[in-house]
Structures are given as structure tokens and as C-alpha cells.
Amino acid sequence: MSRRAQENIVAIVFLAMFAGVVVLSLDFGPRARMIPLPLGILGVILALIQLVWQNLGSTDTLKMDMIEVSNPPGVEAAAAEARASEAKARNAEPSLSRRAGAYGIVALLLALILAFGPVLAVFAFTLGYFVVTRYYTPILAFVYAAAFTAAIDLLFFVLLEVNPYYGLLAPVIARFQ
Amino acid sequence: MLDAIAAGLLALLTPQALLFMLIGVVYGLVIGILPGLGGVVAMALLLPFTYGFETEATLALLLGAHIATIWGDSVTSILFSVPGSAKGLALCFDGYPMTKQGQATRALAASATGALMGGVIGAVFLAICIPLIRPVILALGPSEYLMMALWGLTVIATFSEGSLVKGLIASVLGVLVAFVGMDVVTATPRFTFGSEFLMDGISFPVAMIGLFAVSEMMKLAVRGTPIVDRALMQETSTVWQGIKDALGHWWLVVRSSVLGLWIGVLPGVGASVAGLAAYAQAVQTSRTPERFGKGAVEGVIAPDATMGSNEGGGLMPTLAFGIPGGESMAILLVAFIGLGVVPGPEMLTKNLGLVFSMVWIIVLANVLVTLIGLGITPWLARLPSLHANLMVPLVLCVCLVGAYATRGRIEDVVVAAIFGIAGYLMDAYRYSRANFVIGMVLATMIERNLHISLSLHGNGFLMQRPIALALLVLVVLTAASPFIRNWRKRKRLAARGAST
Description:
The complex is a heterodimer.
Chain A: H1 3-25, H2 36-56, H3 66-70, H4 73-91, H5 96-116, H6 118-132, H7 138-159, H8 170-176
Helix pairs in contact in A: 1-2, 5-6, 6-7
Chain B: H1 2-12, H2 15-33, H3 39-46, H4 55-80, H5 89-100, H6 104-139, H7 142-159, H8 164-178, E1 181-182, E2 189-190, H9 196-199, H10 204-223, H11 239-248, H12 250-265, H13 271-285, H14 298-321, H15 327-339, H16 345-349, H17 352-380, H18 388-407, H19 411-428, H20 433-457, H21 461-464, H22 466-499
Antiparallel strand pairs in B: 1-2
Helix pairs in contact in B: 1-17, 2-4, 2-17, 3-4, 3-10, 3-15, 4-5, 4-6, 4-14, 4-15, 4-17, 5-6, 5-14, 6-11, 6-12, 6-14, 6-17, 7-8, 7-20, 7-22, 8-20, 10-18, 10-19, 10-20, 12-13, 12-14, 13-14, 14-17, 15-20, 18-19
């Protein structure tokens, strides 16, 4: 999928969100919608401008660069170089599989925490990550994951006294308690 | 005033506050030296630990970490020409050539001393400005605060990185996200979709952890390589050389610090611009500008002094008006909210001691950063060779467990993950996360002051408050400035094209 198509999808998502805000705000009382409603409308307008503009030209020209405004001659080249390297980095897009992997990592840890609670999830996730990526041998991975989990447990649940959460294991834990 | 200055220092001289500052500084150095994990990530990750401790100790932890990350950022720029964030870019121009010439220790020492001197100048400026600005702040009413918040938001959207429209979209979305939950004025649940959890609104610390820390880990996971994969050069210089360099160029330090203060006071104009502007200023004022880019020590001192003083400047609008100068100041504001501290007039009347505590924190943290940093630099410099496969699982776990710890609610973990993915997408498609966060922080201020203005002065409150009206004109002019500039630029290009 081209960069422009991706940008269009993002702009459409924003447009839909702002439109949703407008619709939802109409149900609020006059005082409660005093800011959300105009902001929602402004958001719709901005998203439409972005959508139209990115297909006709570039909104990147519409920015105020403090370096350009203050215009110190010595820094122009440096700023241009910085922008060029930034643009180069941006154009070097990661593959879809790598990006999907990043989403998957977050989703997996979230699912583990929801299912088994933070402590067990941290252990399973770090152990799995080290083993799957072959960063450590299984034995070392087990040792480091256990040590890290113990540190997390000590910091959050012992020292900071955060109430533990056990997810699906709550009935089992309750039986033992 | 003197009482407040003394009280501010005394409040910091508790074992807890000193320990927290030390922890914050060491932690900040470690995070700052890891490219990609700047001060914002450092502060976002600390937010879950800001509850239940002394206010001064908590601020010492946060500010200490933030100040340390600024210099930590310089380390990788100088040693590897890999800036941790945009603000470290200017240091690559001369810092890295110095490293290649075996002058890394000298460059690091000059950078640390420059940052220390800049930081102290910034703190002194903040202390001097407090009595000067107090009458101004006390004279302003809710209508003026409303307009200032709107102006701050417009300036941030206009001057921040990327396109103006995208910046504005991010700001608007940030403001709207802050409205999720029960409206305190009308007791109306807004955008809660019947969820009891959303009635309490989106927790700011959780949103910050997601937007900055989780999304940075996702970026690192996508990259999947060591952050920096380069060996250190053979060293021939000493720490003392660098310290002498910074002290010898004291006038350059003062000039750069003043520049940093000015840029810090302006909302939305971050330290990245400050570093480059300081470098340009150093080149322009040098008698031997041809040395720059080849390892001139002034090219290291000037950006660091500017970035050091930038913090004092950035704290001014944050403390005085509740308008954050940048994303790190927005996170500091979030911490204030958690601690029950309200920026604005109250800050400079009831909490003056706390303000001076912050001034002292800037000074002491800068001293600590310099002392510790110089001592452990050789060890710290090896941190960026840590592989993403080690960093990602560990930091990601701390992020999501930290999100749970903020309120002890499992739903917050889901919120952090959603914000993490949103932050990653926003970064990938250049919708400023900083604008989003600052919008979120300013939303409450905007709505509260609008309601108060309407209650006090009625619908035509702008007509009764000339300063507020003038500020509104400023908002419109600020928002229109890029369009005017663009129009002028096209006109100029067209004229040039016609003449040729």
C-alpha cells in the first residue's frame, strides 16, 4: 500500500472520530457540549483539509520553522541536513511483518496480563521473548526472566503496595489464600 | 521571598528527597543515553511512582531524571553521532569529530560543564522572574487564562514539527480525549459509552506511558537491532581539559544560556530548535568559524548550555500559567495534578516554597549530573550497544505494570496499550504526540476558565476584558501566520520566476 493511501486511511479515521464526537456531543446539555461540539466540528474541518490537501499537494509546507523564522545563516545548512536525514529515515519504512510483530508484542503482553495478572505475565512474556528471539539460552532466559519478575513484584506489589491482580487465576489463588 | 528560598532548599534536604534526586539522576542518565528514549519517556515511566511520597521528593525524582536525560542525550551524540532525540543533533556536528580525534572525554566534560553552567543560569533566571511575574499573574483573570491556553495550543501546533494541519488535528484530539468522563461542571458523562471505568476519565499518566514509552518500545521492536553498534575510540584527552574549555568560554555559555531561556519560555518551541540556534550563534560569533564542524569545542559547549538553561525557561510558563513549554513540561503538569498542586497564581502565592524547591532541584540535579556523569561516562557509553531484544520486553513490562499501578485498575493496562499503538501510529504518520499531550493537559484549563468567564462576565466576556480580546487577536494571528508566510513565499517565488 502506498504512503499516500496509508495517510488517507489515517485521515479518514480521524475524520470518523471527529464526526463521532459531533454526533455524541449533540446529546449533551448546552454547557456540557460548549467545547466538545465546536472542537469536533473543527476537527472534522481539519481532517477534511488534511485529506484534500494531501491528495492535491503537501501540507508540510504549512509549518513555521523557528530556525527559518529567526534565520541565523550558519544553521540553515545544519537544519536542512537534519531535515534531509529525517526524511530519509522516514522513507525507509519497516516491513509490514515487522510492524505487525510490534503490534503483536503489545497485544500478547496485554492478553497475558489480563489473563494471568501482571506477575505471571511478566515472567511468561520475558522468558518467551528471550527464548523466541534467541537472545539468551533457555536456562539463562529462565534465570533472567525470574530475576526480573521478582524485581517487578518487589517494586510494585511489595514496596508500592499495589493491589495484585490475578485474572483467570483469581479463584485458584483465593483457594490457597 | 528569602523565607521561601530557604524553605525550598530545606524541603529538599530530607533523606527521601535527596535519595529520590539521586535515583532520578542516575536513572535519567541511563535512559538519556539510550537513543530514542528521551526525557519524556523517562518521566512517563516515573509517573506511577509519584504517588504517596513527599511532593518535593517526587519532583526531585522527576526533574532530576529529566535534567539527567538532557545530558545523557548529549553523550551518544558526542560518542557515536547518534542523537537520542532531535535536541542532541547540534552536538553531533563538533562532538563526534572530537571523538574521532580521541578527544571524547574532553568533549563530554565540556558538554557537562556547559550544561551545568546553563542549568544554573536557567535556575537563577527562574528565581529572579518569580517576584517580577507575580503581580502580572495575579492581575489576570479566567478570561485571560482561557485565551492564553488557546494561544499556547495554537503556538504549539504552529511551531512544532511537521505540518500545521496535522499538529492542529493532534491538539484537537488531545483536548477531546481529556473530556472523556464525568463533566465536573454539569455532571454529564461524556464519551463514556456507558462504561463505569471511563466515568473517571482517561488517566493522564497512563496515557503518557502509552503514548511515549510503549510506542517507543514498538519502534525499537520494529527496528530490532542494537541501538548503536560502534566501538569507542582510543582516548587521549582528560576531563579537566573539558572543564577548562567550558569555563574559558564563559561568555559563550552566558549568551547561549540566555538564548535557551528565551526559547524555553516560548510554548512549543523545544530544545531541538534551541540546540541548533545555539550552534548557529556560536558559529556566527566565533572569530574562527572555519573550525566548526571539524571538532571545535565551542560547538559542544553552546548547545549544551542552551539546553541546560532551557529547563528554567520552560518551567516559567508551566508554573506561572499552567501552560507547558513542551511535552516534558506537560508530563510535569500531569505530576502536579497527581500531587494536588495547581499551577498558576496559587503556585506563586501558596506554593512559593515548592517553586523554589524546583529552582534548587534544577541547580542540585545539574551538579549531580555533572559529577556522576563524568564519573560513569565510560560505563554509560556502552549502554547503547544493548540489543532491542533485551530492552523491549523489559521496558514494555515496566510500562504496562506501571500503568496498572497508577490506579490499581486493570482497565488502565488496556488504555496504555491502546495509547501505545495510537502513539506509534501518530509518530509514523507525523501527527505530533507532543501536541496531543499538551492539548490533553490544557483541556481542563480551557473548559474551566470558559465556564468561569461566562458565569462572571456573561456571553460577551471578551468585550469586557480587553487583554483577553487582545490575546484572541494574537491567537488568530498565530494560527494565520503559516498561511500568510506560505502565501508570501509563493508570491516571492512567482516574482523571481517572472523576472528570470
